[in-house]
Structures are given as structure tokens and as C-alpha cells.
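Entry 12.
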Amino acid sequence: MLGPGCRRCQQGEQIRPDNLASASNTCRIRPDGREFVHCLSFHQQGVYISVVHREIPAPRPGNRERVVELLRTRGALTRADLARLLNISRATVSTVVSGLHSDGLLVESDRATGGVHQRRGRPGSLLTLNPAAGAVVGIDFGHTHVRVIVADLAHQVLTEQIQVLERDHDARHALRTAVSLTEQALAAAEVDRAKVIGAGVGLPGPVNTLTGAVGSSSIGPSWVGLHPADDLAALLGLPVIVENVGNLGALAEVTWGAGRGAQVAVYIKLDAGVGAGFVLGGRLFRGACGTAAEFGHMTVDPSGPICRCGNRGCLETYVSVPALLDQLRPHDDAASAADVVKSATDGNRACLRVLTDAGRRVGAAVAIICNLLNPDRVIIGGELSAAYDILLPPLRAALERDALPFAGSHVTVCRGQLGERAVALGSVATVLHMNKMPSRSKASSAR
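Predicted 3D structure (C-alpha cells):
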């Protein structure tokens, strides 16, 4: 009898006590790249062993890595900002900045004019990573579109490409479209593929973080079971990280937008689909296998209409853009979210009513989230964020009615600042968060 293999990654060998060396090998779980080690667990008799899974703690980064990470994720900062945020001395900051500057990984710009210069020792100047040291591709797969952006390491968007898709599009066609748009975007930005450090990809559905597979038909039947990170990595020839669009919108808003400074942020994406992302203490919360924050599939009426996920009465069946258009079809010829918002703003009572009802339903759902997570900020994004001024009063009323008093009064509800680019920018952010900077030789060759 042999002990079982690794119970989590299924890659550990079944081993006898005379084969202990094989248990020290490490394995990796994609797509997040976390490293694990096979550890030995002896059976009671001390004869047979099983292999269990334990995450290897990441080594503590040095000050150089911490400065690079902060500039990568926060963008332009002063020396004083770095000292304060990292809790290190100004002298240490100056030493690290000098080294990064010499390696070609950092440039300075004047706070007032934004002009890049090579002078050092200006405490009020802004420090950014050298844009020429690399680039990142961000891909946003929506229910009805693909958007691709290329950004440099200073977070500047260099170019953007977008293609409309059918709502129930074929997944393989969408992947090929993304590859074509990426090629066009890199050419338009005049970025050498060798300088691209990776691509971040957003999908409007749950992605299993242990296997990398799309696990639900809520995005579309043709996506189920696919491994988009593997497929796109092979097609693009680049490292690829795939995330849910709600998570990416949340990451972008917390990094650069309306969620900056929040301890617990909830991002709500009201679009062709309805999703969310939770950022707790500066980190995305994905759940055990990546399906946390499926906000649009909260059941709000067990006897309600059938949802594309297979359940009844999901929130998405009431407040998504297609749902609102369906409600209006007998009474109004609105063809898009923009049409509904404009008509409501102009006083159309039917459009005002569906938006008001949507705000009320979203508010009741947000109240549940507030009772569970106690966020200090809820950010409204997606196409329907254009109707924020109409949605907010009924949303806030339902939130205060249904949430515990302290949880409801503590939370700030605000409109996202990054608009339709939020997911694509979040795709860039997730690559910048997870990838190491280019080596000195690579950065030097990029200059």
C-alpha cells in the first residue's frame, strides 16, 4: 500500500519511505503562479507517507523591490511619498532611486510641467518607471466586445483597439479577434514584442484559479471548459494572466480611481452582465477557487425569470442592460444603455422607472454585501454608471433600509472614475502587480 499523491495539485508521486527525495520537488499551480512544496506526512505506523500541499512563503522583498513595486502599482510618486508609504528613511529612498536611475529603470518629471529630465536630487519631482523599459497588454472580453490596450510601465496608455462582438459569440472567434487587435495595437504603439512583459485578460465570468478553466456558462456556452490563459499564451507568445472582469475593475479603481485609500472596497459592474470585485486590505478576494463576487447571480426572486446561468431570479435578470431594454421594449425604442440614460434625463417616465427600480434592487443586494463584508466604499462602474445620479437615491434608500445601521451608514457609494477602460486598465494592473521588472541588461537595451 502506498500513501496518496498530493491532494491539491495531484502532481505528487505516491512514494515509499525509501524515496523521500521525490517529495521535495516543487510544483506550480496556474494561473497565479504561486509556488508550493510537497511536504511529508507520516502515517501513524511511521511506515507509509502521504504528500500534502503547503505554500512556500515568498521571500521578504528588499527596499529596491519595494520601491519598484510601489511605482509599478501606484504610478508617479515623489521621494517623500516613497519614504512615507514604505516607512523608510529619505536617505534610503535616495540610495535606491539613484541605483534604479543608473540601471535605466526610472525617470523623473517635474511636478508642475510633467517634463522628463535626468537631474537627480529634486525632492518635489515625480518618479516613474521608465516607459521604455517595457510594456503591458490589457485585454477586456465583454459580453459584446473585445477591447485591447497597450500601456507602458509608467501606466500611460499608448493605444487602444476595440471590436464589437455578438452577445452569444463563439469563444474561439473572440480569442482570435483579441490576438488580431493585440497585433494592431502593438504596431500602432510601435512597441517591440520583446519589450512586452505580459498580457492581462478579463472575462465576464468565473475562472477557476486552480485549473485556469472557465467554469460557468454565464459568460457564454462556448467558453465553458476552455483554458483562455493557455490558449492566448500560445497564440500571442506572451505570459498571460486571466481574471474575472469584476476583479479587474475593482483592482483598477483601487489602484488608480475611486477606490484609492479604501480598506474594503466593493466594485459593482452594471453592464451587459452584472459582476463585482472585492478588494480587502489592498488585495483581491477571489474565494477558494475564483468564484467570489458573482454579484449578478445572487438570487433576488426564487420564482423569477430563468437566468443564462441556469438559476431563477438572479439579480442580472433584472438590472443588466439587456434586462432593462427588454422591460422597455413595449414602451420605448431605446437600443442601448446610453439611449435609456438620455431618455431618462430628458424626463421619459418609463426609462426613469426602470432605472429607479434597478437602483432599488442593486441597493438591496449591496446591503447584503455590507452586512457580510462591512466595506467602506462601494464603487459603481459599467455602462449604467452613466445613470449614477438616477440610480443613487433609490440605491441608497434600499441600502439604508436593509443593511445593519452601522454598516449602512459607514459605507460611501460613489461612481467609478475609470469608465469603460476600467477592466482593460485592471488587466494591465494585474500584470504589473505580479511580474518582476526586466533585468538590468534588458532595461538597458530598451533605452
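Annotation: The chain is about 35% helix and 20% strand. The first helix runs from residue 63 to 74.
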